[in-house]
Amino acid sequence: MLGIQCKGLRQGCWSVRAESLDAVNLSAVAGGDATLPCDTRSPQPPDALLLVVWYKDDVPIYSYDSREKSPSAHWADDSLGGRARWHAAPHAALRIRDVLPTDRALYRCRVDFKVSPTRNYKFILHVIELPEKPKIFDAREKEVVGVAGPYIEDTSLKLTCVVSGGKPMPRVRWWRDDKVIATLAAAEDGSRLSLLELKIPKLKREYFEAVYTCTADNTALVPPLRTNVQIQLYLRPLFVEILAREQPLSVGQEAELACRAVGARPPAIITWWLDDKPIAVTEPQKNSDDFNETVSFLRWTPRMEHDGRVLTCRASHVKLEHTTIETTMSLNLHYVPIVVLQLGSKLNPNDIEEGDDVYFECVVRANPPAYKVVWEHNGQVMTHNQRAGVIAGSAHLALQGVSREQAGRYVCTASNVEGDGRSPPVNLLVIYKPVCKNTEVSIVGAAVNEAAKVTCEVDAFPPPKNFQWTLNNTIGTVELEAGKFTVDGAGRSVLSYTPSGDTDYGSLACRATNLAGQQIEPCRYTLLPAVKPDPPSNCSSLNLTDDSAELRCVAGYDGGLQTTYVVEAWETEALVANVSATAPVWKLHGLGSGKALTLVFYANNARGRSEITTLRVHTLSRLALQTEANTRSNRVDSSWALGIVAGIVGTLIAVTIIALVAKRKHHRPLQYEAPTQTAKAYKGSIQPVNHSPIQPDDKNPDVVPLGKDFNCTRDEERPPEPPPYGAVVSPPVGSSKSTHSLHDVRSNTPHTPNTPASDIQSIGTLAEDRRSVTSGTLSRRREVVTTRTPLLANARESCV
After folding, report:
1. Among 409, 370, 416, which residue's Cα sits nearest to residue 393?
2. How far apart are CA 531 and CA 736, in angstroms?
3. What pLDDT is attached to residue 48?
4. Which of 111, 178, 399, 412 could disulfide-link 358, Cβ–Cβ 3.0 to 4.6 Å?
């Protein structure tokens, strides 16, 4: 509303008010622009505009003279300060820039034409002063900029919007989400401040990050002034949970557990506990994009003692007290079966004898339950065999009539999806009487007035502490004194026996006694005079290369003493190698390539050295090996055409051979008589021991080894070709007058090892030989086989 102050005569004031009644109201914002229109069009078109004059409260302030064609056509009062300008087009008007509150007045536009009468247009300009931007203050009268709070959930809120200035007085309003929630109407009370409060009695979760806006406006010419504020709250966590896993927790295997907390602002602090003891977490917790959810990951390796305990996940607020919530999970751990093997409760583990019934109990603790139980005895898997007295179940094992072979370590193994669990072994001790470890009758050689060691080893549990030695000879059975033998804790007794004459030889027997009783069948030994060993026989080369050879012979009689077996390799008169071993098996190295060697084999013990056995070999040539390799390579590279030709040739040869065989079937085979050879002639063919083993090369130095059943010595002489079949004859029986003659005869006799079935017979023969020595005579039988090999046409071989 335009306020006009009247001075002077009362009649003049009324004239001004009356003059403003037909004026047009215009509004402008202080600091903006104001446009005062004025129609300069003549009602008579030929007429021309002469002059335009603007009056402010009847005081001229601006004029425009159309008759002037220069800038001087415009005139403005100094009160306008150059802020006004007349514009003839597009619409005639006076435009005022940077409107001031003093520009509020009654304006009149006078238009003069050349012919038409003068026109007047009246305007009342209202200048609007905008208020200042709203400011927001909290309950403590502290200005809030952008964010209010944070406030604790369920508390109250009070915000005050303060607007200063404005003419006319502004309208103040609170908004939320484009909805007006509070309004303060404009009031002209003479105050320049407008205050509007926003009160929320209880801040719920829905007020979190809510945006409130305070606006102030007193005109429609410009948008309302506004100030925004966001409400921040401290929110307690709503719930917490341990996320489910697809796989169960297993003992000894690292697992990842996740705990999720929802609803806390700021995000909750998650901690892990195991029975009120905190668990360290190495990985930082993660928040969702809107920070509404928080997840903590726990990498943890459970142990067996954790099974059945309680795992807790707690979510707490960093600012709020008494807002911690938690969730728990009882640990149901999967683990490899824990197995304990126990002997039957009614059994005494130290008093189990052969023939007793024994049972075991396998106690299994497993999650998930075991699906299989396996029993083992000394590392071997046992199976259910009721006929054999083995009754194996999932939890028990019964042994009916247990034997000594069933003593040892027993283990039960239980299996589930986590793995196999083995029990600690349980050692089953079975008490049984002693038995000989060597069931065969051993031959012991002993010289007169020389001590011989005879070892008696028995298998028994517990080990025997008492032994009894007896000697059975032509006089009778005599028990030997305890001072002649020793007993150790390993079930072994060593007899030191010194024969003083022929009557001290015979058969020794050893019996042991333990807790189970006395040994039923004694260990037996045949005591014979010690002699030189027999030479090795049936010698052959197993693997012959260009520089080495593997050799093996059959051992002869060792003379009753410890024997060493020797092989010598000779090239002409030079010794190439000399190797000894406790068994007739050797491996020679460094022999040289492509050499013809003579191998000399003999045995040696304390009584002397045996006769020799010879064998000729040729080491392979490196050039031959290379040639053979090249030949194989050329065969691989040959064309298929050569294969076809070879096939045709082979077919022709096969047909020819079949025809020759068919032709020979019409002829009767020749009959040959086998010549005989006396024992004396055979002995003459054996080389003397003191003679050099190196002999001149035969016409054919290649050696073709005979079968393992032959023991051959090549004769130096080459008689006429014998028939291709051999014959066996019995040479004359020789005799001996002393033990020395027995030694001589045995040294010239190759020894053929006895089979197990003939052990008793051999022992009996040795006993007869001993009795023959005692009586001054010894009978020996020698069989000589004369044969001929196709490759050695001029050589004759004698096999004994």
Report:
1. 370
2. 14
3. 87
4. 399
- For the record, the structure tokens of 18 come out as 């009356």
**Separation CA 601–CA 579 (nearest Å):** 10
Average pLDDT for 477-481: 88
Q: What is the CATH number of domain 10-128?
A: 2.60.40.10
- Cβ(23)–Cβ(124) below 8 Å: yes
- For 3, the token pair is 């306020």
- Any residues with CB less than 8 A from the CB of 552 and at least 6 apart, and which? 539, 540, 542, 584, 585, 586
* CATH number of the domain located at residue range(s) 239-330 in this protein: 2.60.40.10
**Exposed, middle or buried, 728 (CB in 10 Å: 0-12/13-18/19+)?**
exposed
Structure tokens at 577: 């190698």
* Bridge partners for 511 per DSSP: 468
pLDDT exceeds 90 at position 301: yes
Q: Could you tell me the two tokens for 661?
A: 């065989």
Q: Does domain 432-529 have CATH number 2.60.40.10?
A: yes
Q: If you compute the radius of gyration of the chain from its CA atoms, what whole number of angstroms results?
A: 65
**DSSP code at position 114:** S
If we measure between CA atoms, which residue out of 789, 794, 617 comes closest to residue 701?
617
Contact between residue 80 and residue 63 where contact means Cβ atoms under 8 Å apart: no
Q: Can you tell me the distance from the alpha carbon of 349 to that of 431, in angstroms, rounded to the nearest whole number?
A: 10
Whether the bond into 368 is cis, omega within 30 of 0? yes
Q: DSSP state, 731? A: P
Per domain, the residue ranges of the chain are 10-128, 135-234, 239-330, 335-428, 432-529, 541-624, 679-799
- Residues 123-181 have pLDDT tens digits of 999 999 999 999 999 999 999 999 999 999 999 999 999 999 988 899 999 999 889 99
Residue 704: Cβ within 10 Å count? 9
Q: Would the CATH topology of 135-234 be identical to that of 541-624?
A: yes
Alpha-carbon dihedral sign for residues 457, 461, 466, 467: negative
**Domain 335-428 fold:** Immunoglobulin-like (2.60.40)
pLDDT digits (tens, 9 = 90+) for 34-63: 999 999 888 887 888 899 999 999 999 999
SS3 489: coil
pLDDT at position 620: 87
Structure token pair of residue 436 = 């000989």
Residue pair 576/592 in contact by the 8 Å Cβ criterion: yes
- The burial class, CB within 10 Å (0-12 / 13-18 / 19+), for 507 is middle
Q: Using CB atoms within 10 Å of the CB of residue 231, give its burial: 0 to 12 exposed, 13 to 18 middle, 19+ buried.
A: buried
**What fold is seen in the domain 541-624?**
Immunoglobulin-like (2.60.40)
Element (H, E) at 270: strand 269-274
pLDDT in tens, 536-588: 999 998 888 888 899 999 998 888 788 999 999 998 888 889 999 999 999 98
Cβ(318)–Cβ(269) below 8 Å: yes
Residue 561 has a pLDDT of: 80
Q: Write a three-state SS string for 734-753.
A: CCCCCHHHHHHHHHCCCCCC
Tokens representing residue 336 in the block = 């490899």
Residue 187: count other Cβ atoms within 10 Å of its Cβ.
Answer: 11
Q: Assign a CATH topology to domain 135-234.
A: Immunoglobulin-like (2.60.40)
φ, ψ (nearest 5 deg) of residue 758: -105, 15
How many CB atoms sit inside 10 A of residue 720's CB?
A: 7
Beta strands in 57-118 (DSSP E): 59-65, 74-76, 84-87, 93-96, 105-113
Contact call for residues 331 and 313 (beta carbons, < 8 A): no
Q: Token pair of 365, please?
A: 């603790």
| Range 661-668 contact pairs with CB under 8 angstroms and sequence separation of 24 or more | none
Q: Is the pLDDT of residue 328 over 70?
A: yes
| Length of the chain in terms of residues written | 800
pTM of the predicted model over 0.70: no
Parallel, antiparallel, or unpaired for β 564-571 and 574-581? antiparallel
